[in-house]
Amino acid sequence: MKRSLLFIILINAICIYPQNKMELFPRGLNFVPLKATLNEARMGIIYSPENNNMKIDVGDNVDLISFRVSDDERITAGVEFFAYALSRSYNEFRLQIDAVDGLFGGNISYSKKINDKRFSGRIRIIHNSAHLVDGHWDFHNGKWIDDYKPIPYARDYAELALAYEYNTGFALLKNYTSFEYSFLVRPDDVKRFNFNGGIEAGLNHLTGSLLGEEFRTFVAYNFLLSGAGYFSGSNNFMLGIKFGKWNENGVTVFINYYKGLDVFHAYYKERVERAGIGFTIDFL
Predict the structure, then answer these.
(1) How many CB atoms lie under 10 A from the CB of residue 79?
(2) Total domain count for the chain?
(3) pLDDT of residue 20
(4) What CATH number does the domain containing 81 carry?
(5) Using CA atoms in the order 124, 126, 100, 48, what is the torsion angle rounded to 10 degrees?
(6) Against a cut of 0.85, is the pTM above it?
(7) Reduced to 3 DSSP states, what percent helix, strand and coil does the chain have, rounded to the nearest 5?
């Protein structure tokens, strides 16, 4: 009954809202995904030459409806479905997928421009589950590799992310922070609170043009405080080039260094250190 009432209220609000200020399936994302965080919807690969491992990202984030409050202020609502997988090796013409994290949910985003500055915020609710798959199974011996067995990992969480963008003359800077609270966790030693903070800098003097499209060199850093049993810090550094306008569609190539708790939550207690090269196809 409550869900039906909320649905009726939402439909009435959409019908009453001035049509020239409302847009279905707007172009572009109101809250641009954060480059150095690890739980954003993206499409791409990070390859680690040291051990031939790959992180494979598949997914998308789409704004479904936009409400324009003013010329420089709007609110959007959208959905996101994505997964990332760990490939340990390549054998018999197929990737050996060891572990997969699947995530899906919805979000509401807000943005406001003030001259050359931009403030944006996002509230989202996400379900995350993690799995070991056939690449972690030893078919010859009929057991899990290293006797490491599947863990029933799941997390339903709400996240509030805030970002502030401005041009210093030297770089297009974005400072951001986010707070997560998990209202469901499994196993129960997973910490319910997570904190993210970071910075992105698109360097104004390391830009150019390729086939009529601009490109820009950037650096990005993210710090994550999370844990199981106790809190632990994780650091992610990126140096790359974005081909295409900074906050629009394009391709990003980068080098990456990560040290902290494993991003594949089937190994949620393990600490790892990985360096790699990668790319993403940006649908913004």
Answers:
(1) 15
(2) 1
(3) 61
(4) 2.40.230.10
(5) 20
(6) yes
(7) 10, 65, 25
